[in-house]
Amino acid sequence: MRDEAADEQLMERYRDGDAGAFDVLYHRHKGGLFRYLLRLCKQQNVAEELFQDVWSNIIRSRERYQPSAKFTTFLYQIAHNRLIDHVRRRPELSLSLDDPGDEDDPPAERIAADPDGQPEIIVERKRLAESLVKGIQGLPALQREAFLLREEAGLSLEEIAQATGVSPETAKSRLRYAVAKLRDELRGLR
Amino acid sequence: MTREQDKDSEFEAYLQGKSSLSDVYGGLPQAKLPDHLDAAILAEAHRAVGARPGAKPGRSWVIPLSMAASLFVVVIIGMQLRYLLPGEVSPQAPRSEQSGPENQKAELPREADKLVTLNKGMAAPVQAEQKPARAPEGGLLDMAPAMPAPAAPPAPKKEAAAVQEAPQFRVSTSRPMAEQAAPAAEAPAPVVAEKVAQEEQAGKGAARMKAKSASSEADVDAYAPQPAPVEAIAAAPQATPASEPQVAMGAVSMANLRPADWLSRIKQLKQQGKLDEARKELAAFKKRYPDYKLPKELGNL
User: Which of these, A21, B13, B147, B300, could form a disulfide with A14 (CB 3.0-4.6 Å)?
Assistant: First the structure.
């Protein structure tokens, strides 16, 4: 399954009929995209629906794909637009970031269950994770999205701007505020 | 102001990947994607390009190529069987005994057939009746004697030229097209060569011949190769070595006929008083069809 080809080459190969190229592309990006959607829309079932829609869109639009932009930007641009459409159709949903697993299996608890860690380190990780999750939850949706695009997709400022349809300055401002708030959140622990 | 500068430097460090913020975020538990979602998306992706999930890429050409190769082989075999099976051509042969001798003529070129078909002004039934058999009953091997004699090497070119010029002849004549095209195609090579030689002696080029044939019906008749009589074809001395007996040539040409037609021809020879020739033909017939029941008229020959 390992294929070191660039995303753009894989997408071109898939466009030309190589289904195996899509497999590589999918496994390379599925985790980040799903977390991006899940941490923005907070509902597992909604995130799954949007996730499938995004990939279906990629599949359908393969004939029109031109590698003029980075594939990741293309992918998250579709995800962003799909998310916006979904929120517009269902106004009761807001782009908040309540972790859906918090009630049953909080992330901090899962970190604490790591059997390989030392007790002090485990406690520290737990505190940091809880604090970071809390900080991300408190971010405005657009700042949160900028942060997630940076962390999950590894996009640059220009690419974040392109994916979200704003200017690079706006994207930079959003990300800068998000990072500052999260740093403050973590700093309070120390 | 110092706080703003600190934030800027922290942000720059974050963009450069030197912040611990990314490390902490990366340590968060990974959300798990349901397996059924993976399967559904991959299946959709494979369906979209016509591939099965798990199938190796780059093999989509195998099935079309194998189908094309199979079709090619079937067509080749079909073409071979068309000439090898004797029953395939028998329905095209004239059934009346009177039309039997016409079958001794050489095969009408396919170009002439096409031209005949294209001419809508001509009577189709007449053309169909006059279409000669493509192959004799004896099969591919028996076709050899009926082929145009290879005595004159340039003959095929002249034959082709005659076929190409056939439409011009038809324009100015009222004869059925098949009657004109067939003689042009089936005239023995020496006859055509002789015409060409005469024409060259008269200093006429091919273009001039065309123009003249279009202007005068008489000229058309003069330039158009006339249908050679059956006897001329059968006894054409140019086509066989001089040492070969006449009877053998006649037997060869009549051997191309169906048994009934052959016997009919022998009867005609007998009625014409050519008893020697009739006896020789009958002997050849008996040699070829030893078990064939002869009619009473030929029993006392």
Answer: A21
User: What is the pLDDT, as a whole number, of residue B120?
Assistant: 43
Q: Which of B21, B28, B34 sits opposite A182 (nearest CB)?
A: B21
Contact B53 A180 (CB under 8 A): no
Give the alpha-carbon dihedral of A56, A62, A66, A67, to 10 degrees: 70
Residue A52 forms contact with B (CB below 8 Å): yes
Q: How far apart are CA B14 and CA B90, in angstroms?
A: 92
- B65 min Cα distance to partner chain A (Å): 17
How many C-beta atoms lie closer than 10 Å to residue A20's C-beta?
Answer: 20
**Angle at A90 (CA atoms; ends A84, A95), nearest 5 degrees:** 50
Q: Name the residue among B153, B148, B164, B155 with its Cα closest to residue B209.
A: B164
pLDDT tens track for B265-283: 888 888 888 888 888 888 8
Residues of chain B with pLDDT under 50: 88-193, 196, 202-249, 251
- Interface membership of A5 toward B (CB under 8 Å): no
Q: Kindly report which listed range (A86-100, A165-179, B19-33, B107-121) carries the lowest average pLDDT score.
A: B107-121
B297 close to B267: Cβ distance less than 8 angstroms: yes
